[in-house]
Amino acid sequence: MNEVTGAMVAVKSDRALGRREALLAAAAEVFFEQGYAATSIDAIIERVGGSKRNIYNEFGSKEGMFTALVSKFAEDVLSSLVIDEIKGRNLRETLIAFGEHLMGAYMSPALIGVYRTVVAEANRYPTLGRTFYENGPARATGRLAEVLEAAEARGEIDADDCFRAASHFVGMIRDNLHLQVVLGLRPPPDADEARIAVLSAVDVFLNGVASHR
User: Of 24, 69, 74, 77, which is least packed with CB atoms within 10 Å of its CB?
Assistant: First the structure.
């Protein structure tokens, strides 16, 4: 492959990626506004343009699009826990980076909409709840558990069950703040408030709240 051909392939790849991102963004909006059951592929096309053929070629089905949407959020969060990215960080720095990624994902309008959709449709479409959990919270918790296991092996922490500890941390990041936003009681936190919440969760997680006096 010569340089010109390689550049053309790269441009096409970037365009395809941009198109996929646009489709998922539109899908998130429509799922939020109309609910999973009422959302049609046509409604998504009206929002972003294109054809049914393109969507079916890319995702296979409406459920496939929903799965891709949830997986995208999971990948965004897990990017802070890529091995190459956490080398040289201590555990506190790693938890802060992960917590900020997780907070940003949980509080994003698109994921808030997806979360509301899953909760509203879970009884009628139980696979949605399973898809959301397995591709989102479960993956994030599992990856964090691996990081905690490595920290335990280095003697940084003493945890009987790293997966349970990871679950606690994820729950602390989500906290009542997430519930308030989901219920529409308040807007998502700004960057300063989110960082304060993450730092508090990290400190409580690592140090506890027991008095050491």
Answer: 74
* Greater model confidence, 52 or 76: 52
Structure tokens at 118: 């899953």
**Rounded distance between C-alpha atoms, residue 83 and residue 85, angstroms:** 5
Can you tell me the distance from the alpha carbon of 73 to that of 138, in angstroms, rounded to the nearest whole number?
12
Q: Rounded distance, CA 3 to CA 1, Å?
A: 7
**Tokens linked to 44:** 């998504």
What is the H or E stretch that residue 41 is in? helix 41-48
d(CA 47, CA 17): 18
Each residue's pLDDT tens digit, 123-138: 888 888 888 888 788 8
Query: What residue type is assigned to position 136 of the chain?
Result: G
Half-sphere exposure of 122 (CA within 13 A, CB side): 11
